[in-house]
Specification:
It is built from 12 helices and 4 strands; from the N terminus they run H-H-E-E-E-E-H-H-H-H-H-H-H-H-H-H. It has 267 residues and is mainly alpha-helical. Helix 8 packs across helix 9 and helix 9 runs antiparallel to helix 10. The N and C termini lie far apart (57 Å).
Length: 267
Amino acid sequence: MAKNFYLKWSSISSGFKILGRNYASQNRFYKNTGILKSEGKYEVTLDQRKLKTPKGNPFTVDSEPLALAVSVEWNSQKDKIIQSKMHLTTLCNTILDNPNNLTKLDIVNYIVNYLDTDTVLFQCNEDEDLLKFQESEWDPVIDWFNKRFHVKLKKSIQMDVLPVSEEDKTTLTRHLMSYNFAAINGFVYGVDTLKSVILTLATIERFLTPDRAVLLSRLEEEYQNGKWGRIEWAHDLNQQELLARLSAVVFFVYFNSQSQKIQQKNK
């Protein structure tokens, strides 16, 4: 059952690209972008046309700042539309089309179970210098995480040891279920980017900046680069891509966690 779910989730990011229109292969066909409000929701326009999802559903969001950010993504495209660089649009499409009919609980279970292989919880015992490096950089984050969420996660140097108890998973499930469906999709996008639930939540909670979280997710690679040297352009491009994805996650979760309703005072 778990295996089927992981396969189901892994197809989401690629699945929306083949449903309906494929913007990724098109030249830019519009001059201006904008947003409009309709029936309490916000839509994005490309010239006079309303943006649609790959399935052909209306592209609507509840947050005006999010709609503006998506509009900026489309406006920043040059001659070619590069869908892979439009992370906020990708997240919105995934939620609106939901091609695999996932529920919020499905996604929360995926996130919580990901802790069993969380990058930060598994440290290397084969290289003493690397282990000391991981302890100095990762251990403070684990300590913060345990205090913030009232759990007792333990690091491990044995891949066959599960560091997360069912009690801790239940605690984290309750916390994540307090977010809406859209925000939870943002969380999982971050987890898949950093290969870490701990670093993702630490970034959303503003304990870590996005650039710091990306660096910590690449700790072993950075250690090896320091030891053997780095190919500047290759490593820098990868790091910038991860940072762009994670920054989009932070904005997306924030935009989808803020109330857009304004209450009028009774006269």
